[in-house]
Amino acid sequence: MDAFYASVEQMDNPELRGKPIAVGGGGTRGVVAAASYEARKFGVRSAISGYLAKKNCPDLIFVRPRFERYKEISDKIRQIFYEYTDLVEPLSLDEAYLDVTVNKKGNPSATLIAQEIRKRIFEEIGLTASAGISINKFIAKVASDFNKPNGQKTVNPDEVLSFLEELPIRKFYGVGKVTTEKMYQLGIFTGKDLKEKSEEFLAKHFGKSGTFYYAVVRGIHNSAVKSERIAKSVGAEHTFNENLTSEIFMVERLESIAATLERRVKKYDIAGKTVTLKIKYSDFSLQTRSKTMPYFISDKSLILDVAKELLYQEKMKDSVRLLGISLGNLNTEVKKTVVVQLKFDF
């Protein structure tokens, strides 16, 4: 989907159409969850602070996120997907892989199916979407960003290798900002440069990811579209308007976070053995502390007891701006997708 959260807000509120808006990001500690294309022209994008976003775009309008509404729209979009194939693997509320090799419409062209789906999303829901079409998930994902917004790109089998060789390394899915800089230092700027490096060289500098890079630049990515995903963990967290310096106040916040986590695990009938406490300090450094129980738990009181034990495990090194609790090592018979939305302060 194109700027999904922001586009939903503009669709629901005509007064916001054509204006630079940011979902989330309000207040001194807020973080932008999504930005409209009008705002992106000024360098406003997801994950930057609301302060920086406002500095880049003085006319920016902040909108409080409405995740229930986004999920409602997302469900409608997925229902359209399922009319074409049952092999749908959601990545988030606004993105999914579809395997249409064998599809319910009997259409042999993935390109035409993508056009039809995008047309239906626009006509039935009112939002634009973009698509990438190719022989595997990796190339389709990369291609989906090429003609945004409201466009699509097909990379045919005989075009795959040349497409990847010409691709700037920063556009390779899975190559983040830090890895991009490291690749630049190694003289890797394009797919062609990457392809010239041996598997041993890439493994030496990038570990297991190096083997992945060696394969995908040759068009090899054998990950199937999975219609069911096993949840590895589920969690909840909160960023505070003011840093916390006392464990007493932290326990109060952990109680609320544990209650949120309990609702989520019970909604999906999940229990887990490992409780992890996430602490982000005022200097943005991150620490996690974990404890594994001999039995599965899902109740707030038990989760909170372990979280408090982890909290007092050692002295805080600084004031705290974020706390989170997650439950892992889940009972393996559970096969459900757990979507966890972060809270944004205003």
Automatic annotation (TrEMBL):
EC nos: 2.7.7.7
Catalytic reaction(s) noted: DNA(n) + a 2'-deoxyribonucleoside 5'-triphosphate = DNA(n+1) + diphosphate
Ligand binding (Mg(2+)): 94
Domain of life the protein comes from: Bacteria
Cofactor: Mg(2+)
Domain (UmuC) ranges: 1-176
Primary location group: cytoplasm
Top EC class for this record: transferase
Co-factor note (free text): Binds 2 magnesium ions per subunit.
Assembly, per entry: Monomer.
Protein name, entry field: DNA polymerase IV
Source species: Flavobacterium gossypii
Gene: dinB
